[in-house]
Amino acid sequence: MTGTSIDAVDAAAVRIDGRGLRARATLLGAATAPLAGLRDRLRAVQRQEPRPAAEFAALARELALAHLPALRELVGAHGQPSLLVVHGQTLFHAPPTSLQWINAAPLMTELGCDVLFDLRSRDIALGGQGAPITPLADWMLFRDSRRTRVIVNLGGFANATLLPRAPLNRGSRRAIEWIDAIRGFDICLCNQLLDHLARTRIGQAFDRDGERASRGTPSAAQHDELERLLRAQADAKRSLGTADEVVAQAERSLRGLTDEDALATAAAAVGTAIGRVIDGSSDAPKSRAAEVFAAGGGVHHRMLMRAIGRALGRDVRSTQALGIAPAAREATAMAVLGALSADGVPITLPAVTGRQEGHGLDGVLLRSGTNSFTKHSQSAATKSQSQAR
User: Fold this and answer.
1) 85/111 Cα distance (integer angstroms)
2) DSSP β-bridge partners for residue 117
3) Distance CA 387, CA 389 (A)
4) Residue 60 belongs to what H/E stretch?
5) Which is it for strands 83-86 and 183-189: parallel, antiparallel or unpaired?
6) Are the C-beta atoms of residues 363 and 373 closer than 8 Å to each other?
7) Cα–Cα distance between 41 and 102 in angstroms, integer?
8) Which residues contact 125 (CB under 8 A, 6 or more apart)?
9) Per DSSP, what are the bridge partners of residue 94?
């Protein structure tokens, strides 16, 4: 997984026991690899700066090669995978147009296994927004039959998955009702804004642990202006992407502040917007009994996490408490989605993305010819889903 903040490649080794919605996923290990010189080139394309076709081709191949150090580390520790699931880098996302960029062939050749990629395109073709893509994986990984849970991703953009507790119906339709009640939505800019300010204000790739922001004092006026700007992204009720950049507007709203006050104001405004959007959603749990867990790089930003907790009126914990490190949550989710797709389960939810119903493989599959991961019949996958439901 590489996110919209374009800071690194995160990889996870996941064991899948069972098939379809009855499967269980276990995180075996995680690894990270830097993007180094690719970072600035990818960001330039993400900003829609013109580049020749040769540069696009080179980026697709070099991005694949940048995945290999992390993948080799995991193969060395956990053995040969039967399936590799790769998100690719989001270079543009404004449905019905979206571009998740990577050349997956070098990965198939290196690892000698099937590779599934471009996971969003079929959802978009079926009329969906292509995002958020992780809610069904969150259900597979984090659901609790007795408690409502909220999983918040603090990546380049913030998004949330609302996982209700199990329905009272104990019959065969229980899983269908449970999954149908899942909700998810994009919220607003998060690390894209905070990291941009760190780069331009203090000359650092990011504000580690929010240390520099913690030295500043939020400006009430600029906080409210920036929060309104961020809340407008959520109010649009559509998936966010690189075309939704409001960084320049946010930057203008922080003019006149010292560097540390600007960082503090931005972190507080982002956290407040995230917390209030979640709490104000018609589908959000109002009870303090609802558990809120966060993942993504923003988990380590102490001021951001405190601001979310204040806005929600409850503690926000890391997904580490549920057995998945916050840096590994999205990569783990990709593995789960890939396994579901290979079993013929649609990986996105109509109630979340707006897609039409449709069965079949979600994503593009490169077959290595030596792999047995998808050899089981479609009828077997359908049977698995039927049993789960």
Assistant:
1) 12
2) 86, 364
3) 5
4) helix 53-78
5) unpaired
6) no
7) 14
8) none
9) 97
The whole-model pTM stands at: 0.88
**Rounded mean pLDDT for each run of 10 residues along the chain, 389 residues in total:** 86 96 95 90 90 96 96 96 94 90 95 94 93 94 93 93 83 78 92 93 94 96 93 76 70 92 97 92 60 94 96 93 95 96 92 84 84 46 40
Q: Which helix (H) or strand (E) holds 9?
A: strand 8-17
Closest CA to 242 of 41, 43, 51: 43
Same-fold call for 8-130+328-388 versus 135-322: yes
H or E segment to which residue 186 belongs: strand 183-189
- Single-letter amino acid, residue 285: P
Query: Residue-wise over 203-240: b if at least 16 C-beta within 10 A, else e?
Result: eeebbeebebbbebebbeebbebbbebbbebbeeebbb
User: Which two three-digit tokens encode residue 262?
Assistant: 């600007």
Domain 135-322 has CATH 3.40.50.1100: no
Residue ranges per structural domain of the chain: 8-130+328-388, 135-322
Nearest Cα neighbor of 280 from 130, 155, 143, 160 is 160
- Say how many Å lie between the first and final Cα of the chain, rounded: 30
Does residue 308 contact residue 299 with C-beta atoms inside 8 Å?
Answer: no
Q: What is the dihedral of CA 299, 305, 309, 312, to 10 degrees?
A: -70
Q: What's the one-letter identity of residue 206? A: F
Q: Whole-angstrom Cα distance, residue 242 to residue 245?
A: 6
- Number of Cβ within 10 Å of residue 48's Cβ equals 12
- Contact partners, residue 184, CB within 8 Å, separation at least 6: 132, 134, 135, 138, 159, 160, 161, 162, 349, 352
The CATH architecture one would assign to domain 8-130+328-388 is 2-Layer Sandwich (3.30)
